[in-house]
Structures are given as C-alpha cells and as structure tokens.
Amino acid sequence: MTVFHDEVEIEDFEYDDETETYYFPCPCGDRFAITKEDLENGEEVATCPSCSLIVKVIYDKEQFMCGEVIEAPKTSENKLELAQS
Amino acid sequence: MSLSSESGELLMCGQNHKGQSQEVITFQPCPLPGCSRVQQVSCGWDFSVINSDCDGQVLVCSSNAFGQLGFSPGITHSAEPFHPVTSVAAGLRHALASTASGCVYQWGTGLSSHAKRMLSPHPVPAHLSSKEPCLVPVAGSTHCVCLTVKGDVFLWGSNKHDQRVTDVHSGWTHLVVKTESGRVFTWGRANYGQLGQINQSTEKEYDISTSSGQSISRPVEVKALFGATQIACGSEHNLAVVGGRIVSWGWNEHKMCGDGSLCDIPQPQPIPCFRDITSNEDSTS
C-alpha cells in the first residue's frame, strides 16, 4: 500500500508552460512534479526528484483525459503506395 | 532565506527568480525603502513578510501567485504600508499579522482548497480565501502569531494561557513552544517523529490518522526538552540546545538531523559529533 506524504489539489500546483509540468513544494526544498501528460493518462502520483516523498494529486480526471482521436491509416492510400513501389 | 540582525538590518540570500532575495549564496544586506530597522522577518515558500519598526509597517515581496502578498494579482513587487503590526508570520502561501490592538489579519489563498474540502458544504471563511488582508475572528488580546506552513495558527498574548509562552517555533506541519518555566510542548503532524514524543501504546495520544499520517492536535510536553535554551524547526525536523548539548529529532531522509544516518529520529537525541562540545550560553542566537 502506497503511503502518501499528503494529498494536494491540482489547483494548488503551479504550472510551468515550458515543461508542461505541475509543481508543488516538497518539505525537502525541491518540488513534487507531475506532467500534464501523466494527468491526461489518469496518473495521480506526484514525485519529488530529491527524496522518497510522494503526494496524491486531487483532480477531476475527466477534465484532463486526452480528447484527441487517432485516425486509422487510410487503407486506399496504402494500396496506392504498394502499387507504386 | 532571511535574517534580521540585532541592529535591525535585513540580510537575505537564495533564489531570486520571484524576487525573494538577491541571487547569492551568502547573506547580503537588503536595504528597505524608508525604514531603518527590521523587527521581524518571516519567509514562506517563495515570498517574505517583513515587520519593520516604521510605524509598524509590514513589507512584503516576491511571489503573489496565491495572493500571499496581500495585494491584487499582477503586482509582484511592492512596499506599501499596512497597519501598525506587532508580529508577522508566513506560511507556505499565506501570511498573518497581529496588531497592538489584538486583531489578526490573514491573506493568501494557500489554505483555500484544503479548507473547502474539509468544510464542504459549508462556505470557506473569508480570511482563508482572501488575497487581501482580512480580519480573522479571534477572541482575546493577541500580540503574537505563529503558524505552520499548512495553516495551524498559534496566537498568544497576555494572560491567554495558564502557561505563559515565551517562544514559538513552527515547522511546515508542527509547532514547538516553550513556556516561561522552561517546559517545551509540541503538537501537529507526528509521522516523522517531528514531535519528539514517546509513542508507547499506553501513552498514545494520536487523535487524527489520515493517509498523510498521524497528528496530535493538543500540546503535549516533551520532558527531554525541558529548559531548552534554543529551538529551531526545519520543515519536518528540529534542533535544540538542552543543557549545553545540541539535540535533534524528526525527519532525517536527507541527514538533516546530523547523526549520520537516514533514519527518522523519534525523540530528541544528542548529535554524536557535538557530544563533547558545549554551546556558549553567552552568545546571541
């Protein structure tokens, strides 16, 4: 069973546009971090790069779930490529 | 980091990407506009609160992302005067100030989401979600405040307690206080041994157990710290000078308790390498 140091709401994290990562202060002086991608994948554990402490991120998973649709390759185009090769 | 000298000078060092201080690794003097002496300085995660002796003015600087400077968003540096204050304290992303008349003001939204969760469906009190100083409903005369990063507030004034408190120190989630008679009490989060209290099953006084760990909400005396002359709190660990010896206890993952190990220290222990060295009782803290 994972023991969280704390539970922190996503609103309390600070977001860095460059790294697309959410940060929250860690008692060791570094910061807990979780990427936007992690949140979109339903992850809820923010880790600190300097120590063993972890925090649970409280957020609405539906708001973060990735809404992109991956288009299936068009089969007609594939047949054309094969014909030309 | 910030220090105030006996002469009232302000010294700071550390990161300055949010204007907390000069970008140096040694303490440098930091002149304040229009004021000659600093009474008290308190640091949050990325902001500082300075209580000057200029008509009790409070100066704040650095990050205002959570309203912790007490002004409207968009202002990152300011030296506006506040009210005549006697004491200031900074949490992670909020701050408090007490006035000579016994009022307490709070600003910064650092506790807002936690309060919303705990109090739901009741509304969050104004002083926990305000980005400007908001009067805190508190009874009695209060001339000093101290708070932990997570929001435990300790207020004290004349005749407020049976034991007259002389010193209050806080970590991120726990408090250590000393009374006039030299007794030391601790309370708050306990799971890293930061309270220095005995954990025997017969004496267990944990009254809250959450996924974040156990905590004690009422002050409990730590007899091993009786007569401590100096106390200092880190985020989740502590140092003290007792009987001329330096002791440490609490979180030790980064060896900050100084015993050479990585194991948390549940009760105050003398730091081994200082065992043969006694502190100079005449030196100023």
UniProtKB/TrEMBL annotation, chain A:
Pathways per UniProt: Protein modification; peptidyl-diphthamide biosynthesis
GO molecular function: metal ion binding
Pfam families membership: Zn_ribbon_CSL
Membrane spanning stretches: none
Residues of the DPH-type MB domain: 4-60
Record keyword Metal-binding present: yes
Catalytic function, reaction form: 2 [3Fe-4S](0)-[protein] + 2 Fe(2+)-[Dph3] + NADH = 2 [4Fe-4S](1+)-[protein] + 2 [Dph3] + NAD(+) + H(+); [3Fe-4S](1+)-[protein] + Fe(2+)-[Dph3] = [3Fe-4S](0)-[protein] + Fe(3+)-[Dph3]
Keywords from the named record: Iron, Metal-binding
Domain of life of the native organism: Eukaryota
KW Chaperone (keyword) present: no
One BP annotation, GO: protein histidyl modification to diphthamide
InterPro entries per UniProt: DPH3/4-like, DPH_MB_dom, DPH_MB_sf
Record text on subunit structure and interactions: Component of the 2-(3-amino-3-carboxypropyl)histidine synthase complex composed of DPH1, DPH2, DPH3 and a NADH-dependent reductase. Interacts with SERGEF.
Annotated family: Belongs to the DPH3 family.
Protein name: Diphthamide biosynthesis protein 3
Organism from which the protein derives: Cyprinus carpio (Common carp)
Taxonomic lineage: Eukaryota, Metazoa, Chordata, Craniata, Vertebrata
UniProtKB/TrEMBL annotation, chain B:
Record carries keyword Repeat: yes
Residues annotated as domain RCC1-like: 5-274
Domain of life: Eukaryota
InterPro entries, sorted: RCC1-like_dom, RCC1/BLIP-II, Reg_chr_condens, Ub-ligase/GTPase-reg
RCC repeat intervals: 56-101, 182-244
GO cellular component: a single term: nucleus
Keywords assigned by UniProt, alphabetized: Repeat
GO biological process, one term: negative regulation of protein secretion
A Pfam family recorded for this sequence: WD40_RLD
PROSITE patterns, per database record: RCC1_3
PANTHER family for the chain: SECRETION-REGULATING GUANINE NUCLEOTIDE EXCHANGE FACTOR, UBIQUITIN-PROTEIN LIGASE E3A-RELATED
Name of the protein in question: Secretion regulating guanine nucleotide exchange factor
